[in-house]
Specification:
single chain, 251 residues, mainly beta, Jelly Rolls, 2 domains, eight-stranded antiparallel beta sheet, elongated
C-alpha cells in the first residue's frame, strides 16, 4: 500500500474587525431603511440622571440608511423611552459608608454668601453644621475667610457641640495681627471659641482654621456647628462667602 502526501501553503486571512450591533436595531435589508447591511454608531448621552444610548449615524450599508434614534427595549424610540443603562444608585448610609481601608468620603458645607454678626453674642453660622452618628469618629476641618469693620476689633469663630460625646480635641488658629496668629487648643467637653484679637486691616480677609476629631458616644445627639461673634460690642465680624467646613467619618 502506497501513501501519498500533498504539500500545500496555507495563507491566513488578515484579522477581522467585528462590530457588535444591538440585536433589536440590525437592518439586514429593507425595514426602516431602504438599503441593507447598515451598522449603527452609538453614543451615550445624559438625560438628567439617566444615561441612554443614541444612534448618531449608520455606516457600512447600501442604499438609504435608517433614521437615527435612541435605543429602547423594542428598538428605536424617543429619548424619554430609551433604556437607562446607568442603573439605579446603590444605597448609601446617612454618614457615608466605611470602606475596607477605613474612612468615608468628605462631606462639606460651603458658605454661599457673607455672614455677619454685630456684637459679642455667640451666633450659629447658617448651614455650617452636621449631625454625627452614635459611636462614630469624625475628622473635621474648616477654612474661614474672616473680616471686621474695625481694625481694633477681632473676629471670633467658635463651635457648638452635640451632647453625648465620648471624647474629642480641637485646634483653632485665628489671626491676631498682620504678622501673628493665636492658637487655641481645646477639649470637647463644652462649646467654645477662638479668642483671636484685632485684625491689622478692616475690610480685608484673614484666614482662620479649625481642625478637630470627635468621638460620638452611644447616645450622641445634636449638631457639631460653627459659631461667630465679634471681639468687641458694637463691631461687626464677618465670615466671607466661599469659606467652608468639611467632615468625614473615619470609623
Amino acid at each position: 500500500m502506497t501513501e501519498s502526501y500533498i504539500r500545500a501553503k496555507i495563507t491566513m486571512p488578515p484579522p477581522v474587525v467585528a462590530r457588535i450591533v444591538h440585536p433589536s436595531i440590525w437592518w439586514p435589508g429593507g425595514g426602516a431603511g431602504a438599503g441593507s447591511g447598515w451598522s449603527p454608531v452609538i453614543a451615550v448621552e445624559a438625560d438628567g440622571e439617566r444615561r441612554v444610548q443614541r444612534i448618531t449615524e449608520w455606516i457600512g450599508g447600501t442604499g438609504t440608511p435608517p433614521a437615527p434614534g435612541y435605543i429602547g427595549p423594542a428598538g428605536l424610540v424617543t429619548a424619554a423611552e430609551a433604556t437607562d443603562i446607568r442603573g439605579a444608585a446603590g444605597a448609601k448610609g446617612d454618614k457615608g459608608d466605611i470602606g475596607p481601608s477605613g474612612g468615608a468620603d468628605w462631606s462639606q458645607a460651603v458658605l454661599a454668601s457673607d455672614f455677619s454678626v454685630t456684637g459679642t453674642v455667640t451666633t450659629l453660622v447658617p448651614g455650617m453644621a452636621f449631625v454625627p452618628a452614635a459611636g462614630a469618629t469624625y475628622e473635621i476641618c474648616a477654612r474661614l475667610k474672616l473680616r471686621t469693620t474695625d481694625a481694633t476689633a477681632g473676629v471670633q469663630f467658635g463651635w457648638s457641640l452635640p451632647g453625648g460625646l465620648d471624647d474629642g480635641a480641637i485646634t483653632a488658629v485665628n489671626p491676631q495681627a498682620e504678622t501673628s496668629q493665636r492658637l487655641d487648643q481645646k477639649d470637647m467637653l463644652t462649646a467654645s471659641r477662638s479668642f483671636g484679637g484685632s485684625l491689622a486691616n478692616a475690610g480685608r480677609s484673614y484666614l482662620g482654621t479649625l481642625d478637630a476629631v470627635i468621638d460620638g458616644g452611644p447616645a450622641v445627639s445634636g449638631n457639631f456647628a460653627l459659631t461667630l461673634q465679634s471681639e468687641t460690642a458694637g463691631q461687626t465680624a464677618t465670615i466671607k462667602a466661599g469659606s467652608f467646613m468639611r467632615w468625614r467619618r473615619v470609623k
